[in-house]
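Co-fold these.
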Amino acid sequence: MKLTDLISSALRSINRNRSRSLLTMLGIIIGVASVIGMLALGNGASESIKGELGKLGTNLIMVRPGADQQRGVSSDVANAEILKESDIQSILNYCPTVAYISPIVQTKSQAVFSSKNCRPTVTGGYRDYFYMNNYDIKLGQLFDDRTGKSLQKVCVIGKTVAEDLFENEKEAVGKIIRIDKIPFRIIGVLDEKGETMGMDGDNIIIAPFRTVQKRLLGLSYMHMIHAATFDENDVDKAVVEIDEVMTKVLKKTSGGEPQFRIATQKEMLDVMGTVLGMLTLLLAAIAGISLLVGGIGIMNIMLVSVTERTREMGLRLAVGAPSNVILLQFLIESIVISLIGGIIGILLGYTLASVGGNVMDMTAEVTMTSVIMAFGFSFLVGVIFGFFPARKAAKLNPIQALRHE
Amino acid sequence: MAKCIIDIQNVSKVFNPGENEVRALNDVSLKINAGEFVSLMGASGSGKSTLLNILGCLDQPTSGKYLLDGKEVNGISKSAISLIRNRTFGFVFQSYNLLPKTTALENVELPLLYNSEISKTDRRKKAEAALISVGLAERIYHKTNELSGGQQQRVAIARALVNEPEVIFADEPTGNLDSKTSYQVMELFQNLNDKGILIVMVTHEPDIVEMSKRKIILHDGKIIEDIKILNPKNAHELFLAAEGK
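Predicted complex below.
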């Protein structure tokens, strides 16, 4: 029997048993499409979150106060009076890899302009704060406070603040707004930062460190220190340096255990990456279950039709077909069904990924691994369960196969 | 003296060897010559179908010798047996055994599909000719489920004769048919027999047996009667009589 005859006979057989073929294909289609689609969406979600985190700057190192105790009473970490502005100078003196540094104080304050008001996060920092956190100026300029001596009442506002307080953000530069009743002159508007994990990155006001620390909050300490290296690869080295310096400094000042914590954006990214990896794994597990269910579906259909197939086998044997040729026919039939189902499944998976990606506003990229894995598994299940009953029947006498019940 | 085609010697067939063994054929010897039209008769369980299946190489005997055209069949390879079934034999079953949801033409083409010497166009021509010869010219492209029982059996006969076999084996070919349709089917067999094809048929209907040329009766796995029918009835005449003409 020629190959073309084999294939055309397989196609005719598929067409003859349309519902069985379709149900088998359905099992494969569901399995393949769900695996491809889900993994693509999982990867897309994790990539888009990673991208957003990346916007925050990967060279960033954050020094925060640790648990604070005053006279044996634990108090809020944020109010711990541990980090002093003098620490900044120590770090600058003794940590050669640190390229940018800024102390940070933060508060939620009300900002008012004429009859409008909003409630942004007000951050006090050096000019380096902008560089470290990838803030770009859109209108006007940044304040010129590299050393933290400035007590100027100027500020740079984010897009959301500009929109909330002004008809047109172009009007904002030069205007005086009141932040907690203290007048600040707007000298610049920042580029849009977008949302990061559900938080509006543009609902912010940034002002010189001392202005916020002294005038707005009346503090003598700071909430945290942001530092950054030039090169991402120096971050670990910088962390060690800062740790050494801070340990010395804090020992000197408080005499107790070093009460500060150093975190890096990289660490946070790594943690995030782990979480996202688990998310993807979860999706993969769900997809795997669909694959399994699809596989069981295929098995059921194939096994249910064994009787019918065995009789067909008997008939073919009776009219003189060599059993290996019939086996080849059945095998090709299984392959064709699995192949068609697999291809439809892949197409559907791609569609699922792109539609889901559009709906969730991210790029869901289909990975070759998921395609190969899903397709391979379903294909094998389809072929094995299409083929093995046939193989069993081929071992029978034609007459046994014909009378199979 | 016509050539001896089928020669079995001391053939036995035992099912379920062991405690519940059934001796379907017990030491049967039989010679059938070219051009014969043999009916195998017997009560159910007498071994007539088993004998037919063994003669048709659909089943193997437990013991004994089978010479086909003077050549031994026992112990030859599976593919050689397939070849015999494909080229030398044709089969007609009581339940027709056609592929469902398939046209008459495709069913008849089936044995030719496994004969690589025949091209696609020849396959079609031969199958069409076979269908025409059994009087189904109008039904070539009908699906099997659109045909009556008699028509389905005629498709099965066309399938049996499409590869120009030497022998046609028929297992109760008229068992599912009314008498008029049975006569038509028997007429086809008689015509094929006239052309020199050896026919071996299992039946339990006495009037059908009378249309063949030799009657073999089995009982408990043994041949108890083997007689020549001197004046076989003509199926065509019987059909006309049944039509009332």
